[in-house]
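Reply to thread "Modeling small-molecule complexes from scratch"

Following up on the discussion above, here's a worked example others can learn from. I took a protein sequence and the SMILES for calcium ion and predicted the complex. Inputs first:
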Amino acid sequence: MTRYSSALSASALAVASLLVPAAHANIVNGGFESGVAYGSGPNIFSPGTPGPWFATAWSPDMYDNTGADGWGIGGIPAYTNMFKGMPAFQGNRFIGFAASTAFGGINEAFAQTTSPLTPGKTYTISAHLAADDTGNASSTYGGPYFGRGQVDVLLNGNLIGTLTQNTVSLTWESRSFSFVAPVASSYTFEFIAQLDPNPGSGHSSYIGLDDIRCVPGPGALGTLALAGCLVARRRRSAC
Ligand SMILES: [Ca+2]
């Protein structure tokens, strides 16, 4: 195989990996569309995380635009209608969770143990985030929430990346980062709500998450950069 055809094949592979990123997904039910959330009606004191997700701190809330098993399109009444009118990014359901300075500090969190990763291989975590920073919920519930927080992602207890804060209110925005899988006997991803990182922002934050994915590869931007690099090599440019 000539260097020219080798580069072409590698480019084709890179592009192909862009087109079928979900074929080897490790996180399942990342859109929260399946499984029982509450079973007997939504409750702010119970975690609304459907399997194989499980709550690891406090009680993340399930929103279900249909109202079938979660907080409907009217939002959470006790939180002065948090996320009222907010459609899920994908399907009907998404998770909402809080980071608050109240009660000595709250960082709601949830996790999932996945199928094994390949140690040394690069993966990309992606998700869609939204923030209700309109000041909903009284101090009784850790509010008011005026911040646009972030989400730290831990793998087996170690921070591997942060899904960074939204730029505008009540709007789904895509976030992602890549990491290299460590050697481990099992793999548990945990998503932890964080305060708004900007000083003077109002700090306490209530965040929506939907369409969480973990796929092999450096991510769309990284893959495009790789493909561009290979094309550049064809043209004898340094890369
Ligand atoms: Ca969803």
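What I'd highlight from this example: The first strand starts at residue 54 and ends at 57. Residues 22-219 form a domain with the Jelly Rolls fold (CATH 2.60.120.260). Questions welcome below.
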